[in-house]
Structures are given as C-alpha cells and as structure tokens.
Amino acid sequence: MRYIDLLQETSYSLLMNKARSFLTILGIVIGIAAVIVLIAVGEGATAAVTNNISALGSNLIVVVPGSASGAVSQGIGSAQTLTMKDASLLQQQLQYVSGISPEIAKHFQITFGANNTNTNVIGADPIYSFVHNVTINNGSFFNQQQNNTLQRVAVLGPGVSELLFGSPYAGVGKQIEINGNLFSVIGVANIKGGSGVSSADNNIYIPLKTAQQYLFGQNRALTSISISAMNAQSINTVEQETFNLLLQSHDIQNPANADFQLVNQSSIVASLSSTTQTLTVLLGSIAAISLLVAGIGIMNMMLTTVTERTREIGLRKAVGAKKKDIGSQFLCEAVALTLIGGLCGILLGIGIIEVLSLTRSVAVVTQWWSIAIAFGVSMLIGIVFGYYPAQRAAKLKPIDALRYE
Amino acid sequence: MKTVAESFSHQDIRPVISCHNIVKKYGSSTNEVTVLDKVSFDIYSGEFVAIVGPSGSGKTTLMNILGALDSPSSGTYTLDGELVSNLKDDELAIIRNTKIGFVFQSYNLLTRATVERNVRLPLIYSLVLSPTERKKRIEAVLQSAGLSLGYLKNKSNQLSGGQMQRVAIARALVNDPSIILADEPTGNLDQSTGKIVINSFLKLNQEGRTVVLITHDLNVAGNASRIIQIQDGKIISDELNGNEPKRKLT
User: Can you give the pLDDT at residue A45?
Assistant: First the structure.
C-alpha cells in the first residue's frame, strides 16, 4: 500500500465521522493545551518569585533584632537590640562582604499638596542602593555628604511617586512632607515589582543621619542590618561570622539565646522555588491526567470504529488487504487524530499563554521543551492507544468479518 | 448432455481452477461436521460455471475456498497454476487481490464512498498501476460492467441495487483477475434488474473471462455454460448446459 493511499483512506475515514473525530480531537486539544499552559503558569510563578527576591539585592543576608525563640514575639524588627555600634563592628570586622547597610524603617504620613499617603520610610546609608539593588530612574540616590550634613532629601519608590504626583518617576525637585518635615525629592527608583504595602516600590529612602535627626530620634535602635556577601559562595561564611561577632558583641554565651536573627536570601529563594516547582509538577500532573483520559477516548473511539467497520475490514481483506495494510490504516487514523489534536492544542496553548502575558493577569514563562514534549506525547498516545484497536482490526478473519452483522 | 470430461478432453490444457479431494470440516473432533466431502473438479479458462445447490449444501463454503477466503481441511486447490490450499494469510491476500474478483450478494460497497473510490479499492492494495493509470482502468471496467461514467463521483448509497451490483462487478474486474467469483449476485435484486446483472456476467464471459457463479436459483444458473450441482457437501452432477457450443479453449 502506498503512503499516499494510506493518507487518503485515513482522511476519508476521519471525515466520514466528522462529529466523532472532532470530539475525540477536542479531548487531545484540551489535554495538550492544558499541559503547555499549566507548565507555563507554574514556571511563571517560579520565575516571578525568584525575580522578586533577587530584586531585593544580591547575596543578601539580613540581620533583624529579636530572638528566634522568644517567649513573646513582637514581630520581626520590633525588638530594640540592634544598634549602630553593631553595624560599625560588622563594618570593621567582616570579610568577604561588598556592602553593609544599617537601616531604620517606620511608616509615616507623607503629604504633597492635597495628596497624602502612609508608607514605609527607610533611613539608610547611601550604600543601601547597592546592597538592595535600588536603581534610580530619574534624579539620583543621596550620597554620603548629604547623609553627613543631615540634608532633608528623599528618594521615592515609583509607587509613592505615582500616588503623590500622578505618574511614576515624577516629582524630582518637589518638596514633600514626611511626618510634618519638608524633604526635597532628589530621585525616583525604578519599578521592582512585588505587590502590596510591603513592595519596595512603595518605599521612601532618606539618609540615615537625617532620619535619626528629624524622624526617629538619635537613640532609636536599628530595624535591620543588610549585608551583601561578595559572592554566593561566601554567603555561609559571612553569615556564620556575623552571627559570632554579634553574639560576642551582645555578650551572649548560648547561641540559642541570640537576640537577633539572620535571614539568608538564597535560602528563601531555594525554599520558595522548591514550593513553586511542586506547583509546576502538580499542575503538570493534572494536565497529564486529562491527556491520559483523552488517550483513552481515542482508544474507545477506535475500538468502536473497528467494530462498526468490521464488514468494511472484511471487504478490504477480501479484495487483497494484508494484515499490515489494515493495521497501519487504523493506527494511522489514531495517530492522525492525536497529531491534529496535538498541533491544535499547541496553538491553543501558545494562544492562551500570549493572552495571559498580554493581560499580565498571571505570570507565564513559555517552556519550549514542554511544547516539544506535548507534541511527542500526543504522537505517542496515538500509537499506544491506537495499537490495540489496529491489531484487533488486522487480526479479523476476512470470512468472519464479511459475515458480521 | 455431454459430460465435462468429454468436452475438455484436451490433455494439454491447464485448468484455471483445479480442486482435488477438497474436504472442509467444522467443529471439534467430538462434534465434527463435514461441510465439503472430497469435492474434485476443474474449471477451464473462459468457462461460465454455475454452482447450484439448496441452502446448507456447502456451496458457500466451496465459494469461500475458491475465493481464498478460507482454507480446506484437506485436499488441494490450485488457482492459475498456484497451490492455494496451504498458503499463509498474507499470501492469500495477494491471491485475492490479483487473481480473484469477488461479487457478493449484498454488494459490500463502502456505502458512503463514491463509485470511483469503491472501484479503486483493490488497486490500493497492489502496486501494479500508477495513480494516473488507475483512472483509465477504473473507467474501462465501469464500462465493461455496464455503468455510465456519469456515476463516477456519486456516492454508492445514491445508486439503485442493480447499479450497486454493477459497481461491485467493476470493482471485481479492476485488477484484471483470472476468475470472477459471484455469490448469489442477483439474490438482492428483482427479476428484471437481476437479468441486467446476469447479462453483464454473460458479456464478460463472452469477452473471455472465466466466471463462477453460485446460486440456488436454477433460472439464473440456466445462463451458465456448465452447471455443478452440490448436495450435502458432495457434487451430484457436473454437466454442460443444454446445447451450448463447445468453447474454443485459449
């Protein structure tokens, strides 16, 4: 049998039962599209989480006050145990670090004309912008001289800028009031992403010394000390050293009684991405189940077809079809169904991903391997679930098949 | 009436079909039914043979064996010089494709396919003709079967019974087989349509084709040049029909 004849017979047979072929193909389309979209959504979630955390700074270790096992927890950062003295000590003693940033933070009322908001004001050294990966879109970050001379200058996150001035990156040169004190806006940071009140986009940065002078008071303890390790390999060493230095400085013998905690950024990334990986696997499995069901649908249809067309098979054998001819015709029909379904499913999946990424409703990352696998799997389903019905058709005896009613 | 042996006494002529002691049994050894019991006959090229017998006589079983759809339990069946009785399934498929043209009582057409596709069906299982040669062949056999080429693109379920049977005849001819086997070809047709179909067979026979027709209708069998009667699995008579002139053997 020529391939062209095989293809022709296959298309005739599938067109003969348009509705049934369509419904069977639909099952595969949905299955394949679901696999592609759900994997893209899962990968999108992973990428979003990783990006958001990396945006906070690279190789970051954050020291926050308060004990890990305190009897009464007042929330991270609320304890008063971190001081400028600790920050100076770390700055003098720590090796393998590229920046150490002492920070104080609190929510204050911000006003510009009739607009006002309540947001997080961070007092920090200029190195903050390096440690926390804050890039400036418009204007500049404050410098050491502005810090030392207690200048009332502020750098806004784009979220605050939008709230106060109506558009992100606007407001440089304007005067805003922070808790009643006038500050000049000297820069607006780039968007970092993230959502909610804790988003870095809603921060206002002011020099640390200015903050202590006008907003927090001189003796106010630090909210956190952020340490940027030189590279990913040195994170653990730096973390350990920091822990030991602070224990000594706080005169604590038992590490379990430490009145501070260290949070390591890469461990957060690791645990969060393992969570999202699980999500991807879960979503992928759900989609795979729908694909399996679609495959069984194919098998069901092919078995029905074989029974229905028993006389046709008998006739084909009577006029000279060999086992192989009948077998390959039915296998070809099954594979054609899954192949068409697979291609349509891929197009549908890519379409849905495009819509999702255009509307920005869900983070998606198209995984080309998932498309390749989906395509392969759809072929495989055709072969696996088409094989048995095809064999059944091929093995029919012509004389019995012709007599079949 | 002359006997067949008297008519075909030329020793040098090789028969198209040669059956020797064909036995066909069904069922288990304890409950065995012998459907054909040592059936032997030869059919020569250009003959028009009717095999007649009441239902249950074994004529359909014989037809299935002659058509290479079934194998005998014992005995030999030679078709066109090839020993068919012990071939494997796929080898039988090749025999059916190239040497035998079937015409069934119930037409067995692909009802929703066009006349052209139905006639083409045996061609797709052989690699003899190229796709362009096929079209010519299909048109030629449709004309031989007496069906207008205007029906080529019609679906076969839009045709009358007589037309469907002529499509089936065209399909039987399309691979230029050694014999045409017809199993009750007029069984589903009224008398006048049946006559048209029988005339198609007569025309084919006059063109030199060997036709074997199975029927229980003696009127239909009367058109044949030779009648083999079967009863209870045995040949009870094998005679030339009436005053048929002796055929020229080719």
Answer: 84
| Ramachandran area for residue A224 (φ above 0: left; ψ -120 to 50: alpha; else beta) | beta
Domain of residue B18: give its range: 4-240
Flag whether B249 is in a domain. Answer: no
The partner residues of B41 in beta bridges, in order of sequence, read B19
Give one DSSP letter per residue of B176-195, joined into a string: --SEEEEESTTTTS-HHHHH
Please check whether residue A401 is in contact with residue A310, taking contact to mean a CB–CB distance below 8 angstroms: yes
Domain containing B83 — which CATH number?
3.40.50.300
Closest CA to B17 of B4, B34, B30: B4
Residue B171, pLDDT score? 94
Give the pLDDT of residue A264. 82
The CA distance from A300 to the nearest CA of chain B, in Å, is: 23
Residues of A in contact with B121 (CB under 8 A): 315-316, 319
Torsion angle of the four alpha carbons A252, A253, A258, A261, in this order, in degrees rounded to the nearest 10: 100
Q: Find the helix or strand (DSSP H, E) in which B244 lies.
A: none
Count structural domains, chain B: 1
* Coil, helix or strand at residue A51: helix
Is residue B108 a part of any domain in this protein?
A: yes
B93 at A interface, C-beta within 8 A = yes
Asked if residue A195 has pLDDT above 60, the reply is no
| Cβ neighbours of A317 in B, within 8 Å | 93, 96
User: What value, to the nearest 5°, has the Cα angle with vertex B229 and ends B224 and B231?
Assistant: 155
Which CA distances in Å does A5 have to A262, A321, B94? 72, 12, 17
Handedness of CA B92, B93, B96, B99 (dihedral sign): negative
Contacts of B97 in chain A (CB under 8 A): 319-321
CA distances (Å), origin B55, targets B60, B128, B229: 9, 38, 12
pLDDT at A367: 82
Query: A8, A11, A12, A319: which to substitute to probe chain B, counting the most B Cβ within 10 Å?
Result: A319
Handedness of CA A293, A295, A299, A302 (dihedral sign): positive
B72 touches chain A (CB under 8 A): no
Q: Which helix (H) or strand (E) holds A204?
A: strand A204-207
- Could you list the pLDDT tens digit for every one of the 250 residues in chain B? 555 555 554 445 678 999 999 999 988 888 889 999 999 999 999 999 999 998 889 988 999 999 999 889 999 999 988 999 878 999 999 999 999 999 998 889 998 899 999 999 999 998 888 878 999 999 999 988 888 999 999 999 999 988 999 999 999 999 989 899 999 898 888 888 888 889 989 988 998 899 999 998 888 898 899 999 999 999 999 988 875 544 433 3
Give the A:B interface size as CB pairs under 8 Å.
Answer: 62
Residue B250 lies in a domain: no
- ipTM greater than 0.95, yes or no? no
The pLDDT score that the predictor gives to residue A154 is 95
Closest partner residue to A319 (CB to CB) among B70, B89, B122 is B122
Tell me, yes or no, whether B245 lies in a domain. Answer: no
Q: Select from B64, B102, B113 the Cβ nearest to the Cβ of A319.
A: B102
